Amino acid sequence: MIRQLCDNVMVSGQIAPHEVAALAEQGITVLVNNRPDGEESGQPLAGEIEDAAAAAGIAYHFVPIIRGIGPADVERMQEMLREAEGGKLLAFCRSGTRSALTLAVAQREEGASAEEVVEQLNQAGFDHGPVAHLL
């Protein structure tokens, strides 16, 4: 299920390679994979999704978040937000939570107000509590 944070930023749980072409048709221009390979048996490998993204003409970035959200993760997400300007970004992980929280901190670092970021998370059904101290 894709959840919208703002006009051009969305998050979701795990996607499959066969779903990528449809994402391109929906206007997704940047795909960010925040899920490390091997986190769960049966999940698609990052390389499989990268191949599907290349075939669909979508920029793909593998930014696995393993032990909580760190400064490097936020910086990479800021880069992805800038890359997606004029298009749409979809970040995904197992459930969408890691991606949503990382995006929230990145958006805050990019100048969005704390209130705006918290409202986006709340409307998308995410609890901002784990990153409240960073907002």
Order of helices and strands: EEHEHEHEHH
CA distance, first residue to last residue: 25 Å
| Number of spatially distinct domains | 1
Strand count, sense and barrel status of the largest sheet are: 5 strands, mixed
In DSSP terms (H or I, runs of 4 or more residues), the helix count works out at 5
Task: Could you tell me the CATH topology label.
Answer: Protein-Tyrosine Phosphatase, Chain A
Structural class estimated from helices and strands: alpha/beta
Helical proportion? 25-40%
In CATH, the homologous superfamily goes by the name Protein tyrosine phosphatase superfamily
Name the CATH architecture.
Alpha-Beta Complex
Regions with little confidence, pLDDT below 50 for 5+ residues: none
- Taking all Cα atoms into account, the compactness measure Rg is 14 Å
Calculate the mean pLDDT score and round it: 95
Strand tally is 5
Shape: globular
Largest beta sheet: strand ordering: 1-2-5-3-4
CATH class membership:
Alpha Beta
Strand content: 15-25%
Give the SSE map:
Elements: E1 3-6, E2 9-12, H1 20-25, E3 28-33, H2 46-56, E4 59-62, H3 71-83, E5 88-92, H4 97-109, H5 114-123
Task: Walk me through what this model shows.
The chain has helices at residues 20-25, 46-56, 71-83, 97-109, 114-123; strands at residues 3-6, 9-12, 28-33, 59-62, 88-92. With 135 residues, it is an alpha/beta fold. It has one domain (3-134): Alpha-Beta Complex (Protein-Tyrosine Phosphatase, Chain A), CATH 3.90.190. The protein has a five-stranded mixed beta sheet, with helices on both faces. α3 (71-83) crosses α4 and α4 (97-109) runs antiparallel to α5. The two termini are 25 Å apart. The model has no long low-confidence stretch (mean pLDDT 95).
